[in-house]
Amino acid sequence: MNASRRLFQLARRSGPAALLGLTLSVATAQAQGGPIPPADIPDGAAPADPLSLAPLLVPEQTDPAALLKTGKSDPAAPRPTEGRPRPGLTLEAKLLDGGPSIPKGVIWRVFAKQPGADGRLPLIQETQGGTVNLPLKNGDYIIHAAYGRAGTLKEVSVGGGEEHDTLVLNAGGLKLDALVGKDQSPLPNLVKFDVFASDSPTTEERAPVVSGLRDDELVRLNAGTYHIVSRYGDANAIARADVRVEAGKLTEMRMFHQAARITLKLVSETGGEALANTSWTVMTPAGETVFDSAGAFPDAVLAIGDYTAIAKHDNQIHERNFKVEPGLNREIEVLTK
Question: Is the pLDDT of residue 138 over 70?
Fold first, then answer.
């Protein structure tokens, strides 16, 4: 990993050791995601909250589930006065084996084991909560639990009476942010992150697990190694890295962009007014076009390097070579004479 894609990750643990130490390396092991649900199981996120993002709250002592909980009230979550067993199937979800139950925000889906006439597994019931009690007829079912983008499934048999089962999601949380150069904050709303399952050489040719994440958003994922693609602007400023998400932990990763925003102006004299009705192309020394636009003040975030700005105005072509340095946002004037 070169200097243009340095990163660090901080993982917070539960219990007395509230914070894990600073880590300067990135795991490159193969992804170890959770079980893959049948194709007809809907997306794991809640319809009203696609990523179930939550603010980061890390008290002195907490449990893994509290690190990743939502801020919403959840009428389906059990209250202390509701602790007595009830007839039916009681389900609870955990981030990791032996950990505490997730108190809220789990999407539970119950499917019949046998496919219907259309070849799909019929959805019997869907609910949201932490620990839930579902009245089900005797028989075999497939239970799917989703927590953000983390999910798992399990086959269960219901025989009547009070029954209980636990699904272990083997999941953690991931929170991303970025800097420009060594220590500059990027321009607002211009950095996005795509998260890919890092399980093949052609990772980015597949659909991302999560796309368009913003700075400081938190997403829940099955434990494993993920490939992160961070884009600063819409041109060629891209950083890539791998990160490992561990069950029951919140992992933070920072990525560094070596780029800057350039604003282009076609002027008749240095410091003069920008000429309207101008078409622009920015090319690399190898002849690759990285930016096209039109107008008096087009701007783009470009990766560091050498470029040529080509302006077309009144059927005349004007050019200027320029260099992009990390974090140095500036105007580039192209003279008509």
Answer: yes
